[in-house]
Amino acid sequence: MKSKYVAAALAFFLGIFGVHRFYLGKRFWGVVHFLLFWLCFAITVEENTPAILLPALLGFIDAVLLFVMPEVEFNERYNRRYMSSTREQWENEPRRRQLPRATSTSKTQSAPDVSDFKRTGIEKFRDYDYEGAIDSFQKALELQYEDPATHFNLACCYSILEDADLAYEHLGKAISYGFKDTDKINTHDALSFLRTQPGFDTFVKDGYKRPASPPVEAPLSLNDFSSPADDLLDQILKLGELRDKGVLTDEEFALQKRKILGE
């Protein structure tokens, strides 16, 4: 269906060539207008007269007429074929006019997919709702169990909740299913608890596989500094070890150090 505004714009900007006539389906008059342009151009060059203004003036006049022409009149002239076919189709389908399709007024709701559960889990993790995040990540695994990113996120959640067994399990599965960012395992704050476990180094050396038997050595904790028999230097060294492993922040390290020194 032709637009009178498009036709008017073509007449205004390209009317000197008669382009608007081709757009409106008037091919004969379009050819005549185009030939008139070249004739006037030749006259202008040879006789140095402004004959080239004639086709431009015709295009300008057509542009003005098209702009002010009523929409109904324009459609009768240039969209009659389209209007006739549309009217015929409209008259032949009365029931279609009266009864709207059900699908046009109702929206289909698609079931949540893996990305929805993963996104929800990340949002809950950032809101410190770690148990809710675990629930969302578990639902994502039900749809795509071999997703390494989901297993890694679960390992982070269980590490924060200090569940070393499940943290080891999901971190190992993340690696086995293709998780490549091992630097993230060594630096992510959420895995600080897991990295302080005495079996973590063995876990890494064995290709991120959980050792068969847990080591006898117990992890370091702040309770190690309660014994009066330890000298000050040993206590400060243990504090530094906890800070290096990510258990203590710099502020916590400074606070414990001041307590040991009695400041």
- Overall pLDDT level: 81
> How many beta strands in the DSSP annotation?
0
H and E string: HHHHHHHHHHHHHHHHH
Point out poorly predicted stretches: 102-108, 214-218
Sum up the overall morphology in one term. elongated
Proportion of residues in β-strands: under 5%
- What summary fits the major beta sheet? none
Radius of gyration: 40 Å
How many helical stretches?
A: 17
Task: Report how far apart the termini are.
Answer: 87 Å
- Helix percent band: 55-70%
Number of structural domains: 3
- Please state the structural category: mainly alpha
Molecular structure report:
Helix 1 packs antiparallel against helix 4, helix 3 packs antiparallel against helix 4 and helix 16 packs antiparallel against helix 17. The chain folds into three domains: 92 residues, no CATH class; 92 residues, Tetratricopeptide repeat domain (Serine Threonine Protein Phosphatase 5, Tetratricopeptide repeat), CATH 1.25.40; 40 residues, no CATH class. 67% of the residues lie in helices and 0% in strands. The protein has 263 residues and is mainly α. The protein starts with a helix and ends with a helix. It is elongated and about 110 Å long. The protein contains 17 helices and no strands.
What is the topology?
Layout: H1 4-14, H2 19-23, H3 27-47, H4 53-68, H5 71-78, H6 80-91, H7 94-98, H8 102-105, H9 114-126, H10 130-143, H11 148-160, H12 164-176, H13 182-187, H14 192-195, H15 200-205, H16 232-244, H17 250-261
Helix pairs in contact: 1-4, 3-4, 9-10, 10-11, 11-12, 16-17
